[in-house]
Design a protein that fits this description.
Helices cover 48% and strands 15% of the residues. With 822 residues, the protein is an alpha/beta fold. The chain folds into two domains: 69-84 and 119-471 and 808-815, Rossmann fold, CATH 3.40.50; 547-790, Glycogen Phosphorylase B (Rossmann fold), CATH 3.40.50.2000. The strands form six sheets. Strands 1, 4, 7, 8, 11, 12, 13, 14, 18 and 19 form a ten-stranded mixed β-sheet that branches. The radius of gyration is 27 Å and the shape is globular. Bound molecules: ligand GL7. Its EC number is 2.4.1.1.
Length: 822
């Protein structure tokens, strides 16, 4: 890190300046001329041009942080689901119009170049997208912050359907060139794995332990700009890529087998090769633990070496940094910092623990027990032997404290132990995080309460002050300003553009809900957004959507707890009633049900559900009568880019998880902010959405969390609902009859059988309530004026769900850090 700012000038902020810079990039970096440039050439030149406008801000921000040495936030996340970068960079640099005009003057179309960008899909779903929203807000709020993660060579798989079934293909997002990243091999960090520990007596006469790793890899940082919205700040996202060390090579080369030596490099490089595609259900694979340790070890080393001045007294580390643990994936950073302080820096144990404790805060993102990561002691000991020793010692001291406080309650001690004994000895990463962190937070009010009352209840008893809530949020820049230019224009015309960085100001729209002209224009925007979606789905998927229908949208990962099956049973029931002649097509509003969902490749039931949706969709869409009022659209490969056109077009947002299972949800917020009405359970952030938008503007249904828990405790019998509800029985029988599988009765038997026998997420228990709520939706939709009034109120009252607000909450309740002025 240099103390002097290099002299640089940004390109001129004008159409001419832009065109000059663009052509220079095309000629000198792409090595081509306008007449011969491919779309990808032009896209790459454009991306680099935009980058240049942000570069001086980036350097200034970095230098400012280094000079001021403020308390900084290091966000540690194994996932960042970034979405496309170009538009966001154009917006931040205030270049949208200049770029469009400049490109047009060269005969190029900005929209076409935009489509050449392959989004970096370095995350699975909500958790990864949340991290991307948070770094955006931190930059926009001038908070000194750095995001650390992994530069996966293959991001989330690309989904295709074959015969209605999901097929996964590798995501080669780097293939066309990666204009947004900056490799810094000169700042590579070495990370050890495996080997053993040994005891030795230090100079101070104290017996110590040290780690002798069995092998090492290099972590090469790739920096990404995280531009704030027009505030002159650009923060950094630093993603690590694994390389073989030279030593690693040499040793094998010297053994004489050149070909084998080259081949074995891939062993090291495998670490950052691919994103694990499991969402909420970790697999406990060795490579995944390698990934986790790899990126946190690199990040801690990097922060200490690159971002602190030489000779910094690490006793003061908590004044300079808070490491925010995004779920349990980075939790091995805790024993790693202990190892650095005790083994490398010669701290005493207590002193190191005091520093470490104050440097970490932990966010839990789940309520599903199977999503809480545990690592077998066997694996941890083999891959990270020194860390296992450290974890044991942390646990020993912690349990001594529990014993003392509880008067030796051994049952409690066993329950709280960081080391689980059954079904195998394993490290409970959530417990380790909770013991070490200064703060533990859930991601919505209900979730935080359930963490305190259930999942981490013993810990909350011991340390009530540790626990807090920070409700999730989404960035209004990407998900309103960019994704919904029509609505943005309408809002800005009404209340000015301050809402983009102060989303609470949407409240000022409230009176306009009663203004017929405003509502008319609001409907016009929605119609235009539907038109845009129709074009995209036609081009991208060959799917025809009628923009005159109600767009009923359920997009999120495919998971049983999210209950795509409940939505599908509604579709099947409508189909059944119409084909049976019980309902006339004249009596139901025409709707298009849109699904978007990827299933983890090894999650068999989720993949069956995808196939079933596609099969039901095919039959429904082919039926001459039914298809006049009901159609199913399931575009493959739902991603951030699709979300950006789908969400602004939606009328109805489906947020129908079983209460007590969805920690927060963030899609729910994006829909409300874009003027869709929610049909939802009392779960996750739905609770807060409903409270804010009002009962009249939200379709609530279903069991509450206490009700669902009570039923589960009393012994849930799904078949009783089947027996007692004729509509439900008919729907399930129809699926089982082969009506959607060319008469093949066996095709979806496992799905139906599972619902009847187990139905872990109580689809059948909530079926009738859901249908009743859908009837209320139909009635409300029949009055377009009243519907759009509710939609406007949803927008006006959802400002709370800005990730800027989430950041303020973290700053106040968790980080105790401040934005940097200027
Ligand atoms: C999740 C939760 O399931 C989701 O409800 C939440 O909104 C998100 C961000 O906090 O985190 N937890 C999790 O493991 N994944 C999520 O999306 C994958």
């Amino acid at each position: 890190m240099t103390e002097t700012t290099p002299l640089i000038t940004s390109p001129e902020h004008s159409v001419e300046g832009f065109v000059r810079e663009f052509l220079r990039e095309l000629n000198f970096t792409q090595g081509t001329v306008l007449e011969r440039a491919t779309t990808n050439d032009a896209y790459l030149a454009l991306a680099r041009t935009v980058r240049h406008y942000l570069m001086s801000r980036w350097i200034e921000t970095t230098v400012d942080h280094y000079r001021a040495q403020p308390k900084a936030v290091a966000y540690l996340s194994a996932e960042y689901l970034l979405g496309r970068q170009l538009d966001n960079a154009l917006l931040a640099a205030d270049l949208e119009e200049i770029a469009a005009e400049g490109l047009a003057s060269l005969g190029l179309d900005l929209a076409e170049l935009r489509d050449a960008e392959v989004e970096p899909g370095l995350g699975n779903g909500g958790l990864g997208r949340l991290a991307a929203c948070f770094v955006d807000s931190l930059a926009t709020m001038s908070v000194p912050a750095i995001g650390y993660g992994i530069r996966y060579e293959y991001g989330i798989f690309r989904q295709r359907f074959a015969g209605g079934r999901q097929v996964e293909e590798p995501d080669t997002w780097l293939a066309g060139g990666a204009p947004w990243e900056f490799a810094h091999p000169e700042h590579a960090v070495t990370v050890g794995f495996g080997g053993h520990t040994e005891k030795y007596t230090g100079d101070d006469g104290v017996e110590r332990s040290r780690w002798v790793p069995g092998w090492q890899v290099l972590g090469v940082p790739y920096n990404y700009m995280v531009p704030g919205y027009r505030n002159g700040r650009v923060n950094t996202l630093r993603l690590w890529s694994a390389r073989a060390t030279h030593a690693f090579d040499l040793q094998i080369f010297n053994e004489g087998d050149y070909v084998d030596a080259v081949r074995s490099r891939t062993f090291a490089e495998n670490i950052s090769k691919v994103l694990y595609p499991e969402d909420s259900t970790p697999q406990g694979k060795e490579l995944r633990l390698q990934q986790q340790y790899f990126f946190v070890a690199c990040s801690i080393r990097d922060f200490v070496d690159q971002l602190l001045p030489a000779g910094f007294d690490l006793r003061r580390l908590p004044e300079r940094i808070v490491f925010q643990l995004n779920d349990t994936h980075p939790v091995v950073a805790i024993p790693e910092l202990m190892r650095v302080l005790v083994d490398d820096e010669g701290f005493g144990w207590d002193e190191a623990w005091d520093v470490t404790r104050r440097c970490f805060a932990y966010t839990c993102h789940t309520l599903l027990p199977e999503a809480l990561e545990v690592w077998s002691v066997e694996l941890m000991g083999r891959l990270l032997p020194r860390h296992l020793e450290i974890i044991y010692r942390i646990n020993e001291e912690f349990l001594a404290q529990v014993r003392e406080r509880s008067g030796g309650d051994e049952l409690l001690v066993r329950r709280m132990s960081i080391i689980a004994e059954h079904p195998q000895r394993a490290v409970r990463m959530a417990f380790l995080a909770t013991v070490a962190a200064t703060r533990v937070n859930g991601v919505a009010e209900l979730h935080s309460q359930l963490l305190r009352d259930k999942v981490l209840a013993d810990f909350a008893q011991l340390w009530p002050e540790k626990f807090t809530n920070v409700t999730n949020g989404v960035t209004p820049r990407r998900f309103v300003r960019l994704a919904n230019p029509g609505l943005s224009g309408l809002i800005t015309e009404a209340i000015g553009d301050g809402w983009v960085t102060d989303l609470d100001r949407l409240r000022e729209l409230e009176p306009l809900a009663d203004d017929a002209e405003f509502r008319r224009r609001f409907r016009e925007v929605k119609a235009a957004n539907k038109g845009r979606l129709v074009d995209v789905l036609r081009r991208r998927d060959g799917i025809e959507v009628d923009p005159g229908t109600m767009l009923d949208v359920m997009v999120k990962r495919l998971h049983e707890y999210k209950r795509q099956l409940l939505k599908l049973l509604h579709v099947v029931t409508l189909y059944d009633r119409i084909t049976a002649g019980e309902v006339s097509v004249d009596d139901v509003p025409a709707r298009t049900v849109v699904f978007g969902a990827k299933a983890a490749p090894g999650y068999v039931m989720a993949k069956e559900i995808i196939a079933l949706i596609n099969h039901v969709g095919a039959v429904v869409n082919a039926h001459p009568d039914v298809s006049t009022v009901l159609r199913v659209a399931f575009p493959a490969n739902y991603d951030v880019t699709v979300a950006e056109t789908l969400i602004p077009a939606a009328d109805l947002s489906e947020q129908i998880s079983l209460a007590g299972k969805e920690a927060s949800g963030t899609g729910n917020m994006k829909f409300a902010l874009n003027g869709a009405l929610t049909i939802g359970t009392d779960d996750g952030a739905n609770v807060e959405i409903r409270r804010l938008v009002g009962d009249d503007n939200f379709f609530l249904f279903g069991l509450t969390e206490p009700e669902a828990s009570a039923i589960a405790e009393a012994g849930y019998r799904p078949s009783s609902y089947y027996e007692e509800n004729p509509g439900l029985r008919r729907a399930l029988d129809l699926v089982a009859s082969g009506a959607f599988s060319d008469g093949d009765r066996g095709a979806f038997e496992p799905v139906v059988a599972n619902l009847l026998a187990e139905d872990r997420f109580m689809v059948l228990a909530d079926y009738q309530a859901y249908l009743d709520a859908q009837a209320r939706v139909e009635a409300a939709y029949a009055d377009p004026d009243a519907w759009s009034r509710s939609a406007v109120l949803n927008v006006a009252r959802s400002g709370f769900f800005s990730s800027d607000r989430s950041m303020r909450d973290y700053l106040d309740r968790v980080w105790h850090a401040r934005p940097l002025p200027g």
